[in-house]
Amino acid sequence: MALGRLSSSRKSPFKMRALGMILALGIAAVVVQTAPGVTAALMPLRTQAGDLLVTGTESEQSPEPGILARLLGHTEKERRIRELEARVQELARYEAAARSMAARLEAYESMLSAMGEPPARGATARVVSEVNGPFSETLLANAGRAQGVEPDAIALNEGGVVGRVTHLGERSSRILLVTDFNSRIPVMGENSGVRAIVFGDGDGLGTLSDRPEEDPFLPGERILTSGEGGLFPRGHIVGTAVEQRDGRWRVAFSMSETRGGFVRLIPPQHIPTPEEEPALSHVEAEATAEAQSENGAVVETSGAAPTPPPETGTGTGGAP
């Protein structure tokens, strides 16, 4: 028992000394860190250590997540966040360029007094597939003449052009899809400007034919309605250009990506022909003919040569 007390008494001074040294080192570290010169010298190292621990490297070529994210399993989330931030920055640049071009285009149209596309009207309808229809690719919409749908109306959804109304009823209509073989839509490349006719080919892709230009489309560019023929309005998305291995160009329809069950039926782009001059009545025709004849007589009279005065001769039998 005496030996236990002796050993505990020997250990207590050691513990006190160790505790004192730890307190002294802590106070010294606090004092050193509060010094302005030491703080300025240690700030880059502290920042680099914090970035390495929390945010990782900031290299654009191969950004790495921080050590803390790796330990907690947030590596994939950090990578996705970085991708989205880069995408937002890129889209912000595109937005600024688009706003500038839109303002410039509006100014040009105002100076040139250009007539744009007519305002879109129409009705929104719910569509269902048709089983025993006259075509292989059709939809039925629950909107017709009573809802303001016009013949040959164009069906659109959030992806792009869906088709065209081929049969119109009082409260329903039949839509021929762009994927059907009997569908024909004049289109053009958004960037290349190449024009063609697209129709469905039964495999989910559209075939481009009747190309007046020999230039190819650009891979991945959007295919838009060209407005040729005066049926489909200009500028609506049909799909994207896809180049096949055999060199043919096809169209991946954009409406196939987002079939939400609703379409917007807008009127076709019918440009009216100029009005003809109204026919004159019988009385107006006679009055016009008399006025023209009188004007012609006046012109002839005014244009005739003056008659010369009679000559006063000095013949032998005449008076001197």
Keyword list:
320 residues, six-stranded antiparallel beta barrel, 20% strand, disordered C terminus, alpha+beta, 12 strands, six-stranded antiparallel β-barrel, Thrombin, subunit H
Tell me, rounded to a whole number, the average pLDDT.
Answer: 77
Work out the helicity level: 25-40%
Count of helices? Answer: 5
For this structure, what is the CATH class of the domain at 123-266? Answer: Mainly Beta
Fraction in beta strands: 15-25%
Please state the second-level CATH architecture of the domain at 123-266: Beta Barrel
User: Which runs of at least 5 residues are low in confidence (pLDDT < 50)?
Assistant: 298-302, 313-320
The CATH superfamily of the domain at 123-266 is identified as: Rod shape-determining protein MreC, domain 1
Return the string of H and E elements.
Answer: HHHHEEEEEEEEEEEEH
| Biggest sheet overview | 6 strands, antiparallel, barrel
CATH-assigned fold name of the domain at 123-266: Thrombin, subunit H
Task: Identify the strand order in the major beta sheet.
Answer: 1-2-5-4-3-12
Strand segment count: 12
